[in-house]
Amino acid sequence: MSTPAEAAPAIRELIASEGGRFTSELGLDVDNSPDDVERWFVAASLFGAPIQTKVAVRTWRLLDRAGIHSIGDAAHHSWDELVALLDEGGYTRYDFRTATRLQDLARAVTQRLGGRIGTLAAVTDPDELESDLDGLPGWGPRTVEIFLRELRGVWPGAKPRVDERARRAAGEMGLDLGADPDREWDRLAEYADAAGVDPRDLEAALVRNTLRRR
Fold first, then answer.
1. Cα distances (angstroms) measured from residue 53 to each of 39, 139, 158, 160
2. Which residues are paired to 155 by β-bridges?
3. Are residues 135 and 112 part of one domain?
4. Tell me, what DSSP letter sits at residue 6?
5. Residue of 38, 50, 70, 97 with fewest CB within 10 Å of its CB?
6. Whole-angstrom distance, CA of residue 182 vs CA of residue 167
7. Residue 95 near residue 81 (C-beta atoms within 8 A)
């Protein structure tokens, strides 16, 4: 296993080649813009489906250009309009199901949270926050993990476990995250700090590496 200092060059190379946070790829600044958190929620709802990342990115861009900047905006589009956008993005196998899920999500977030997922930023208990998100229509542990891992340090309750795909790729790179799941993020952050990068970029790059090699 490599020390953080030893692994630093390989970590920088990994991020340069694979890419970092998905929010950065989408041009979103969730650290400073609550509105971009809303847009990320829409994107994460797509990323959570069993579909290629590039298809999810393309589809999100189409939804965003159509004015769906928060999940509540989906309520202002008909089911047929959503299906057409999803088809154009490449969701042909999941278009009906995903259009229904987006409308169900819009209703749930409107009824429970006043239309803004950012309302949950006030939830400081990680377990409670994950439970609230997991209880949304069509969401599950994987989607919750995708959404929250890019909000570490932004929302106080955003403290998901290190993604299992990142953990696997880290081991293959010789990054020692230890045996305690509760300490894995701290260890990952130590490696990122030594390399001078955001630990969220490192985790995302490790996930991307695993996805690319499937």
1. 16, 17, 23, 21
2. 152
3. yes
4. H
5. 50
6. 13
7. no
Residues 143, 185 share a domain: no
Does 49 fall in a domain? yes
Residue 66: both structure tokens together: 């159509």
In a domain, 156, yes or no: no
Give the predicted TM-score (pTM) of the model. Answer: 0.93
State whether 12 and 90 are in the same domain. no
Number of domains comprising the chain: 2
Looking at residue 76, which CATH number applies to its domain?
Answer: 1.10.340.30
The answer to whether residue 80 is domain-embedded is: yes
Give yes or no for a contact between 119 and 136, defined as CB atoms under 8 angstroms apart.
no
pLDDT digits (tens, 9 = 90+) for 13-49: 999 999 999 999 999 999 999 999 999 999 999 988 7
Interatomic CA distance for residues 195 and 189, integer angstroms? 10
